[in-house]
Amino acid sequence: MPAGSRNIQENNGFSTRSVRTAEKKFSAFGATVVPIVQSSAFGYEDVEGWLKVALKENDGYIYTRNTNPTVRAFEEKLMALEGAEDAVSFSSGMAAITSTLLGLMKSGDRVVSVKDLYGGTFLFITQFLPRYGIKATICNTTDFDSIEKEIINGADIVYLESPTNPTLKIIDLSRFIKAAHRIGAIAVVDNTFATPINQNPIGLGADIVIHSATKFLGGHGDVMGGIACGKRKLISEIFHFKEIAGPCLDPHAAFLLMRGMKTLELRVKHQNATAQTIAEFLSERKEIQQVFYPGLKSHPYHRIARKQMRGFGGVLSFEVKGGVKAASRLIENLKIVSRAANLGAVETLAGLPSTTSHVECTPEERLMAGIPEGLVRYSVGIENLEDLLNDLTQALQKARIT
Ligand SMILES: *Cc1c(COP(=O)(O)O)cnc(C)c1O
Predict the structure, then answer these.
(1) Cβ-Cβ contacts under 8 Å for 11 (sequence gap 6 or more)
(2) Hey, whose CA ends up nearest to atom 7 of ligand 1?
(3) Given 261, 294, 312, which residue is the final one in a domain?
(4) Is 303 exposed, middle or buried (0-12, 13-18, 19+ CB in 10 A)?
(5) Which stretches of the chain drop beneath a pLDDT of 70?
(6) What is the pLDDT of residue 339?
(7) How many structural domains comprise the chain?
(8) For the chain, what is the mean pLDDT?
(9) What does the pLDDT look like over 114-127, one tens digit per residue?
């Protein structure tokens, strides 16, 4: 078993945890599913009882911007999947990321990260944090020695993402988490692409793990959400920022996210297998310049991926020969695909990073992050493999520049 799975406290499998955790505790009227507690506030008959909850001396709920039973059940499910002490949820993945950074940092601090971040995260760290006097050092994603050097030079937060979006680079998580801890910095990992089924950064030493729940956790492309989990003391600081700033998860969204999470392991294992076969298939095609997928033996960091992951995920990307024109023609000819800026859903999704995740970056910034203009990001859904392969075959033939 990889180191990433060792620290999970519960002995049950992932599906048992995602189906069972928090259900009884947050049930009402004998319902077998956690109900949607669609209430902004929670009332008390006696002022003293109310005060005890408000002062956090007793468990309970006050106001849904702070927390809510349905929202808490979602957080407890994710804690069980990531092996985390505590968790706090948000209205989106970006709300989780920005609240984590703003909740833990102050003017004069320094964050060390890498170029291949999710587009929104990259812009937040490089454009907004410096306005508040927080220094941002962005390293070359694959230059492991210089990342380590920058961390040792002084960091308060080391912010990592692996696999990266959209070129599926792999970062040696335990190496940089160790470097962060050597100088007393907090190690944060965005685990959205891997999902808790494939990778548990807390088992590798991470202090905080973040997910865009919009993606694989929800898994059906119908709800937005985000979550940060990890060390209790840090989560309570992030929680405090959230309850004041206000980017809270809606109870109805929490319900949809939990419904999705119950099938997370089934979906992700299926998506791992389909993505692997499609990556191998595309690697053999003459229309394709290169395929990016950590499950390929030819991936430069396949060995590190094997060390820290149990599966390689449902997202791959590939460069079509003929650049952005050929890539556009290819995805326009796909029949079993939604051309949309999402990933991790039951439906297969394809997009050009230059028009989706990295649309706000300049072509130079994209080039700097190693994103070819003709790159296609392909997020495998749960449709049947044969159908997806046939679909790709016919679209590749049509896209060929003759
Ligand atoms: C989508 C995504 C985010 C942002 O999440 P939203 O829910 O869209 O705000 C952050 N990180 C990664 C890796 C993502 O894929």
Answers:
(1) none
(2) 93
(3) 261
(4) exposed
(5) 1-10, 356-358, 369, 401-402
(6) 94
(7) 2
(8) 94
(9) 999 998 999 999 99
